[in-house]
């Protein structure tokens, strides 16, 4: 139709750079058949990157990593080279991507812990406002987290207690909570894994575990029913006396 596949953009990127960067492995052979394009295979953009360099760098991007890996294979088949990267760098970019994913998971777990801490602190403040004695100013006990953050011990303790309850769940408790979805062997492995989990991983797991605090809710419900029965009995006795 008259289009020129050898045109470059204002930053010196060719269609080969775009093809490599977005992982268009099916389009690459079609593009290389166009007149004059194969001669541009190792042409650099203004950042000094060849198409091979761009594909390797984008191995660090989770959205296109798989596609770029396929392009790299095809680029090697036609003799393309990198001028800023080597074949050894591919593993480095892959590891950087995985580390980023792990860091994000840890960040989410820490956010969940902080949300629990805030909820516990609000509950404690509400109790203080209702007449419970608060700790003297400047004497509140603190507990230091691994990352250096400091939490009031009154806040940290309920969180730790909740995590300890999850960590100490036995096979029968796990079977009940998970509705019989796992085999005996899987449940055994899960209990062993819970014992070794870090606080962050444990909090993330607990957030998705069905009825983690079911026994607490049931106990509270029974206590409320008991209070209601006692109140009704007292009311009846008062009517008889009157």
Structure description:
By secondary structure, the chain is an all-alpha fold. The protein has two domains: 1-115, Serine Threonine Protein Phosphatase 5, Tetratricopeptide repeat; 148-210, no CATH class. It has ten helices and two strands; from the N terminus they run αααααββααααα. It has helices spanning 15-21, 27-32, 51-57, 65-77, 89-129, 153-167, 171-177, 184-196, 199-208, 214-241; strands spanning 142-144, 150-152. It has a two-stranded antiparallel sheet. Helix 5 crosses helix 9. The longest helix has 41 residues, at 89-129.
Number of strands: 2
Which bin fits the share of residues in helices?
A: 55-70%
Note the overall shape. Answer: elongated
The total count of helices amounts to 10
Using only C-alpha atoms, the radius of gyration works out to 31 Å
CATH superfamily of the largest domain: Ankyrin repeat-containing domain
The poorly predicted ranges are 138-156, 210-216, 238-242
The CATH architecture term of the largest domain is: Alpha Horseshoe
Would you spell out the secondary-structure blueprint of this structure?
Elements: H1 15-21, H2 27-32, H3 51-57, H4 65-77, H5 89-129, E1 142-144, E2 150-152, H6 153-167, H7 171-177, H8 184-196, H9 199-208, H10 214-241
Antiparallel strand pairs: 1-2
Helix pairs in contact: 1-3, 5-6, 5-9
